[in-house]
Amino acid sequence: MIEYSKKIRLDRELYPLNNIDFSIESDRGRIISAPSLRRLQKKTQVFPLELNAAVRSRLTHSLEVAQNARYIAKTILNKCDKAFGLDELSDAFISTAEMTSLLHDIGNPPFGHFAEIALNDWMSKKGIKILDGLFEVSSPNEEFKKLLVTDLCNFDGNAQAIRVVTKLQRLNLSYTQIASILKYTRAAYEPKPDKSEAQSYLRKKPGYYYSEREIVEKICDSLDINKGCRFPITYIMEAADDISYLNADIEDAVDKGILKFDDVYTLIKDECEKMQETYLFEIVDKFYKKAKEKEDEAYQFNMFLTLTRATLTHALVNHVSEVYLDNHDEKYNGKFNFALLEYDKKSKYTKAVEVLQNISIKNIYNNKDIQTLELKGYKILNSLLDSYTPLLQLDIEDFQKLVNNERIDCYMSQRLIRRLSSKHIVAYKNSVKKLSQEDEEKFKLEEWYYRTRLLIDYITGMTDDFAFDEYKILSALK
Q1: Residue 398 known to be catalytic
Q2: Beta bridge partners of 12
Q3: What's the half-sphere exposure (Cβ side, CA atoms, 13 Å) at 46?
Q4: Nearest partner of 251 among 2, 439, 64, judged by Cα
């Protein structure tokens, strides 16, 4: 039975409120005031180390996604005619969708998604060798070591987002708000499912780490979310994100001079012909001709984009809202194993999305200048991880002295520890404090795991320019 009062609740770790609207407004204030949200203004969306403020950052992208999510949530409410207990929860439903979308990239590292590859590559090739060199693991703990290693080699911005809001920023958000951020439902230490499995899409990427497994389980129990299933509002956030990408990357490419207005029209026309797609081309052709005929040259692309974006967004929002309400029980229970915008492969909307995605992949993401900047980011992150390696090479006794402000013999580590965030160090200390020391070997494995998380937290929390400056400082280039 669909009853949203079982999903949109007051539960939170500390100081729960007794009114759902006040609780949701509290979440809203905490999110907007979060330092990690402000840092998104200096993190890459598509173009690393971008100086042009008109080109999207993670923050401006997230603002657009939040607006789309608000639009979708309102449309769903209008279409479902105040059913399912949503009448008194309409503001909470809309605000949760909006704020989740504002948060959806909060765990992303500097330099875009390519940075995730860099981090996992370094950890699998270098990081694990450091652990192997510290101490040998006996057979009873080999599987546990393998679990932690797998977790550390699967950094993902979605999983890091859960860590940021619960452990690093300690935003004390409602369980409803946190659950809606959980885009993927697989732990980073669990194997990727086969495509034939029932939850293959929902679990295709890591959604949380070993370090957050307990809070995720607690939230899922509280909100009656079965293992491997999603929170219903998460589908709205995902659709809002997908819609936002469609015009944004092309607009930024024009701002950057990678594409020109006529190039955009020609690329869409050719891709539509190739895919035998007519819906998108009719929209684009109509507004291209209108812009050419009625607007000054400097404003033609702006007019074309504004009209195209408004038309497409309106149509796609209505489409995904209908998909959400079709088989509503599956979405409510989080069993729907598709993105809303990708569900109906034969839909004209799905084909239109595919056209624009193909153009972005071929002509923007694979652009030589962008790939050069990605390589630059790869180099910066690898160098930073190398620079902080002495902290991972210390034995547990010396590292414990460091975090407690005691002196040790390692000159480099003594100085490196002072560069780390004090909040991240507190998160590390709190995690280690809770560990059982009954099995000394297991304790050492878990301590090193949280120590490594500490380093990953620090580096992935950096903005693009801060990471670049830190790289120059530690490489003696500044």
Answers
A1: no
A2: 174
A3: 28
A4: 64
Whether 386 is catalytic is: no
What confidence score (pLDDT) does residue 258 get? 86
Residue 167 is encoded by which pair of tokens?
Answer: 């452990």
Please check whether residue 222 is in contact with residue 9, taking contact to mean a CB–CB distance below 8 angstroms.
yes
Q: Is 113 a catalytic residue?
A: no
Q: What is the mean pLDDT of residues 303-309?
A: 93
The catalytic residue among 156, 241, 252, 457 is: 241
Please give the single-letter amino acid code of residue 191. P
Place of tokens 């969708």: 97
Annotated active-site residue 314? The verdict is no
pLDDT in tens, 78-95: 998 667 888 889 999 999
Q: Identify the active-site residue in 27, 105, 252, 464.
A: 105
At 453, which amino acid appears? R
Is the distance from CB of 27 to CB of 173 less than 8 angstroms? Answer: yes
What angle in degrees, to the nearest 10, is found between the helix axes of 232-255 and 58-80?
140
Classify 6 as helix, strand or coil: helix
Q: Within 10 A of 1 (CB to CB), how many other CB atoms are there? A: 7
Q: How many angstroms from the chain centroid is the CA of residue 163?
A: 11
Separation between Cα atoms, residue 74 and residue 191, nearest integer Å: 37
Give the CA-trace dihedral at 282, 287, 288, 290, to 10 degrees: 130
CB 363 within 8 A of CB 259: yes
Of the residues 314, 415, 418, 419, only one is catalytic, namely 415
